[in-house]
Amino acid sequence: MYKFNYLRPTDTVTAINTYGTAGDGQYLAGGQTLIPVLKQRLAMPSELIDLAGVAELKGISVDAATITIGATTTHAEVAANAEVRHLIPGLANLAGGIGDPQVRNRGTIGGSVANSDPAGDYPAAVLGLGATIHTDRRNIASDDFFTDLFETALEDGELITSITFPLVKSTAYAKFNNPASRFAIVGVFICKTPDGVRVAVTGAGPCVFRAKAIENTLSTRFLPKALDEVTVSSDGLNADMHASAAFRANLIGVLARRAVAKLI
């Protein structure tokens, strides 16, 4: 690691002001990506602003139509929350399958979403459910948030404070994971609503994306075999040592069928 100043504010205003006065500051949430990056000297912040002490960024609240999850709420807390498990079971199941217990007890939903890792799980739930990302400056619809590989609509210094999910019980997530890291080689999140079906795919492309052809088919006929008629193109999909683009394209269809089967 390079030398940096470590700061631990206890409220959001102080955290934001600290970032604003830092030479080259960096927010730290769960640190599941940032700490390894620092260890490898791939980043050199002048100040590391730890958000763990900011109580207002934690917690889960429910109203008549939504669940709002604070940005520094851990994966384990989401997975174990009784209201999330009852009201959006697909989200709880997804959170419970992230990494291992150590990762789930340190990693945060806000950090995962802000990182926009192409193999991350949470982006699939955020996009699949049509969630809203709240920051210290504005509200961002999930359809506008994820833009590219490790890139989002967040501006420099913009801080995610919470994420709001609509209450939809018909949700399911199916993942083909890397057996070592448990990152998604491909993951498919399906959300069935009165207005149609949303399908978000992670692990297959530079960032999470919606599978519109699968959405259109399932909105008409919500059955696994209906997807036999859908061909997923491998154009633009990831190809690496773990899976080819063609393999990932096939997995999208396979996992979509599995997710649908959970809901019928």
Keywords:
264 residues, alpha+beta, Uridine Diphospho-n-acetylenolpyruvylglucosamine Reductase, domain 2, Enolase-like, domain 1, 3 domains, four-stranded antiparallel beta sheet, 11 helices
How many domains, as an integer? 3
Terminus-to-terminus distance: 51 Å
- Give the neighbour order of strands across the main sheet: 4-5-10-6-7
Q: Whole-number average pLDDT?
A: 96
Helical content class:
25-40%
Number of strands: 14
Question: What topology does this entry show?
Answer:
Elements: E1 5-7, H1 12-21, E2 25-28, H2 34-39, E3 47-50, E4 60-62, E5 66-70, H3 75-80, H4 82-87, H5 89-96, H6 101-106, H7 109-115, H8 122-128, E6 132-135, E7 139-141, H9 142-145, E8 146-148, E9 151-152, E10 160-166, E11 171-177, E12 184-193, E13 196-202, E14 209-210, H10 212-220, H11 245-262
Parallel strand pairs: 1-3, 2-3
Antiparallel strand pairs: 4-5, 5-10, 6-7, 6-10, 8-9, 11-12, 12-13, 13-14
Please characterize this protein's 3D structure:
The model has no long low-confidence stretch (mean pLDDT 96). Strand 4 (60-62) and strand 5 (66-70) form a beta hairpin. The protein has three domains: 5-50, Uridine Diphospho-n-acetylenolpyruvylglucosamine Reductase, domain 2 (2-Layer Sandwich); 57-166, Uridine Diphospho-n-acetylenolpyruvylglucosamine Reductase, domain 3 (2-Layer Sandwich), CATH 3.30.465; 171-262, Enolase-like, domain 1, CATH 3.30.390. 33% of the residues lie in helices and 24% in strands. The protein has helices at residues 12-21, 34-39, 75-80, 82-87, 89-96, 101-106, 109-115, 122-128, 142-145, 212-220, 245-262, and strands spanning 5-7, 25-28, 47-50, 60-62, 66-70, 132-135, 139-141, 146-148, 151-152, 160-166, 171-177, 184-193, 196-202, 209-210. The strands form four sheets. It has a five-stranded antiparallel β-sheet with strand order 4-5-10-6-7. It has 264 residues and is α+β, with helices and mostly antiparallel strands.
